Amino acid sequence: MPRRHWLIKCEPGSYTIDDLAGDGITSWEGVRNYQARNFLRDGMQIDDPVLFYASNAEPSGVTGLARVVRAGYPDHFAWTPGHHYFDEASRPSSPVWFMVDIDFVERFPEVVPLETLKATRGLGKMMVTQKGSRLSVQPCTKAEYEIVVRLGRRAAAATPSRSPAPGRRRSRE
Q1: Residue 9 scores a pLDDT above 80
Q2: If we measure between CA atoms, which residue out of 139, 144, 136, 117 comes closest to residue 62?
Q3: Considering the domain boundaries, does residue 36 fall inside one?
Q4: Is residue 136 assigned to a domain?
Q5: Which residue, 115, 78, 82, is CA-closest to 96?
Q6: Residue 103 φ then ψ, to 5°
Q7: What single DSSP character describes residue 42?
Q8: pTM of the entire predicted model
Q9: Model confidence over 142-162: pLDDT tens digits?
Q10: CATH no. for residue 114?
Q11: Are 136 and 102 in contact (CB under 8 A)?
């Protein structure tokens, strides 16, 4: 099966690229949109590359890279009464929600802002650049992925070498 490329969104108040750098590997759980769930369950495969996007940030944009290290599996938090992601319709015998595990790859020295993505040739059809695009898990083409990686690394070439900021550990509820 050919490798697919992805963009995942997260608000900085919930989880950041620095958190992922500190954790190394994390589960990407809590997605509660059926289309995004289908991408997690049916589309994301081991070694698929991922653009990590900070949404509702100043500025919103791509902050780094990750990769899928475990393909879609049931989101067991949906089965835990009292948990933030609990859903009584989901059961171990018939799970509704799914998650994947991702691994940190790289932190860009600067955010590649949404405005830059919108203004960059070759990204005009990228889902994240479309008005009203709110999905937290989105496919992107290999060409789109490569353009964004070049934009992120171009900032690295212009920035003096520095160590990534230490990540904070995400608390598990």
Answers
A1: yes
A2: 117
A3: yes
A4: yes
A5: 78
A6: -120, 140
A7: I
A8: 0.88
A9: 999 999 999 999 865 665 544
A10: 3.10.590.10
A11: no
